[in-house]
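Take a look at the protein record below with the fold in mind.
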Amino acid sequence: MAIPKIAMKASIVLSNILAGLLGFAAASAAAEPVRLLGFDTPPMSVVTDGKKLSGPGFDFVADLFKAAEVPFVSEGLPIIRAVSILDEGNAVMVFLARTPAREDKYVWLGDIVPDDGLAFTTRVGDAPITSVDQAKGLKTVAVLAGGAPAQILRGNGVTGLDETANESQNLKKLAAGRVDAWFTSAIITRHILKADPEQAKSVSTGPKVMPWPLWIVGSKNLAPEVVAKLQQAFATAKSNGRYAAFRAQID
């Protein structure tokens, strides 16, 4: 039985409408900006005025997005919330430490600070802490709330952790004698001490006790074309001097 011309035309029109809607949906999904996340950990990322991001690390990663022509919106959040959004998808974090536990959870976009390490800072006059095992004898250790350093200490039997949402507060706690040591990245420690020279006079940082490579990291479901563009932009930044300029700011 032949299909009436009116029905055939209606079917064609409907097919065109559906194709248009699908195309619009795909284009909208492709154009959805990536969420660029950071938490308050200078010099890598600084959160001010609520959720505004700044800092050398953020500026460098934002420049990669611009060079790659990848739309983004930036947001500063507590680390636990930022990691939660990263897990949800279509997000990039200015940096996270690349650890075995995280290896398969994310897409690793570029080794922004591959040579960092974790170290203990203690008050001047106290014995330096040169290993995680030695830290088991401490009553209290200041760490960033929700961060991997806290998980590492717990996993190695270090108890009495004093968790704070801001690393600068950890320095103040140590200088005031409220904790026995402060455990975090050597680069972050150096920057915070430089920003607060009075407090820095009363503390001393020991040697790195373990490597702590920092990477720009993306959600597992980040679009492959976005991953490729950002990785290429990172490679270009390493060759054109932009990365060297960033390192000069934080080293």
Notes: DSSP finds nine helices and twelve strands in the chain. The domain at 34-113+214-250 is CATH 3.40.190.10 (D-Maltodextrin-Binding Protein; domain 2).
